[in-house]
Amino acid sequence: MPPIDVLILTQDYCGFCEEARAVFQRLTREFPLSIAILDINSPEGQELAARGGVLFPPGVFIGGEPFCYGRPSEQKIRREMERRLSRSP
To answer: pTM to 2 decimals?
Structure first.
């Protein structure tokens, strides 16, 4: 089963960003995830944030699609991972 690509837009000194990293680190024990971190203030990060409607960090993209921003909900993320895996062939 191929991993689910997750991109987290973060910035320095962001408590919710650290929380998002911790949530996804825990979830890697249960789900096949490929996690990338990108600074929201980089040119690429700013472009992704604008395109995905991310108003403030952390911004989470799953499978290349905007998923959420701000304080992460582990339950919401877990449900999304289960949904994606249930529809995998």
So the answer is: 0.93
